[in-house]
Amino acid sequence: MINYLYEMLVALGLPNFLKNLSDSFTCPARKNFDRVTIRDQCKDLILTDETLQEIMSRLRSAIETGLSKDHHDSAIVKCFITYIQDLPNGKEKGKFLALDLGGTNFRVLIIHLDENHFDMQSKIYAIPEKIMVGTGEQLFDHIAQCLADFMKEQDVHTEKLPLGFTFSFPLRQVGLTKGLLERWTKGFNCSGVVGLDVVQLLKDALARRNDVQIEVCAILNDTTGTLMSCAWKNPNCKIGIIVGTGSNACYVEKVENAELFDGDKSKPYVIINTEWGAFGDDGALDLILTEYDRTIDSESINPGKQLFEKMISGMYMGELARLALVKFTKEKHMFHGQGSEQLFTKGSFLTKYVSEIESDPPGSFDNCRQILEKLGLGHATEQDCINVRYICECVSRRAAHLVSAGAATLINKMEVNSVTVGVDGSVYRFHPHFHSLMIEKIAALIDTSKYKFDLMLSEDGSGRGAALVAAVACRER
């Protein structure tokens, strides 16, 4: 009856009355119409298991291409050799430095290792935006200055200490202490670095200062650090995954499958840095790309690159949700079609908002309303809050399912009966449901009668892991 009256009023052409009526009407039929519309509009963000299996097949093929000597140069997923062949055994001892560069901040750490015990001191330093897009010399001079300042603060500036260098950008390693930058990601674009050895650039910057003595024992990325950090406590850990500002994975591969490996082949395994963030740069993900993904990509500083990462990581998740909100607002499906300057501003919907909104208990929208107020959307209805949460869930679930497909691909490839997956990164760490979403989806994508797995949160993989790589390198001398 209510719907019939509503349609009659439309036919009579009473726009002002109808506007007041629609603003105050909360009948279930009207609310369900809005919700069905949003759910229907978000279908392209939902991936079936069949689609994920197809993604896994394509990723497996891309990884095998990256491992191949004949096809590596044309590979999208590069599968770089790390030259790390030994995992921690819990008996590492000594004092080690770690340098962790992988985002807008970097850390310097000093770690004292004893059997199954460690003591750590660290400090975070900012990288100004002008340095992120300046010259390579400016970047490494800034890092060297902060490193020297930290050593003086810790009163170790007169000692010569081993250092593990976490460098979380695509790197082609040609040895344990030599790595050539393939390309910048995560908003960096320093000139004069691509194609060069970043360890040597750090050494050169330290030499220009000549006030501290450091021996760089190993270079690695944060996925390798995550694996090493977890393996120190759990020897079953054979995969490391990052879901933070960016996304990447590494895993333990048989030396015989790593055709480009030219190290010690008497040891059976070597860690492979997949650089899976670039998966899809050749069109392999076109079947699931949405208009939001294409906008994110076209407006990024690296169009056409790192497409898998752009669908997953914290650098883009909030913006993906914002683009959907903007679309539905302009189509008058949300907020009565009334947006705000903040909502229409690129980057205004932070990734942490996704986690905070999904942290609201069912039926409660306290966090959601606070965030919408910040965005100038205080006029949001309860149905708007329901829709905002649903959009956030679609974006974060898709990310979790894509990461799960990647993890399942590696588990299937390794064919190890029981494997622990070490995971780190702000999205995995702070999103309220990411862990459980991954557990559920990985189990659905592998044969659990053959393979057992668990997920382990890394305790400071990029910091402690870097020191552990240096410690293992010293142990093996």
Question: What does this molecule look like?
Answer:
The protein has 477 residues and is an alpha/beta fold. 44% of the residues lie in helices and 18% in strands. The protein has helices at 2-12, 15-24, 28-41, 49-67, 129-132, 136-153, 198-209, 222-233, 291-298, 307-310, 314-330, 351-359, 366-374, 382-414, 426-430, 434-445, 461-475; strands spanning 80-81, 94-101, 105-114, 117-126, 160-167, 171-175, 178-181, 213-220, 237-243, 247-254, 269-273, 418-424, 452-457. The protein has a six-stranded mixed sheet, sandwiched between helices. Strands 4-3-2-5-8 form a five-stranded mixed sheet. Helix 11 (314-330) runs antiparallel to helix 14 (382-414), helix 12 packs antiparallel against helix 13 (366-374) and helix 12 crosses helix 14. The longest helix is centred in the last third of the chain and has 33 residues, at 382-414. The radius of gyration is 25 Å and the shape is globular. Mean pLDDT is 89; it is low at 1-35. Pfam families: Hexokinase_1 (PF00349), Hexokinase_2 (PF03727). Its EC number is 2.7.1.-. Residues 238-472 form the Hexokinase C-terminal domain. Belongs to the hexokinase family. Catalyzes the phosphorylation of various hexoses to hexose 6-phosphate.
User: Between the first and last Cα atoms, what is the distance in angstroms?
Assistant: 83 Å
> Which stretches of 5+ consecutive residues score pLDDT under 50?
1-35
Order of strands side by side in the largest beta sheet? 1-11-10-9-12-13
Give the oligomer, counting copies of the same chain as homo and different chains as hetero: single chain
The largest sheet is: 6 strands, mixed
Give, in order, the helices and strands.
Answer: HHHHEEEEHHEEEHEHEEEHHHHHHEHHEH
Helix content: 40-55%
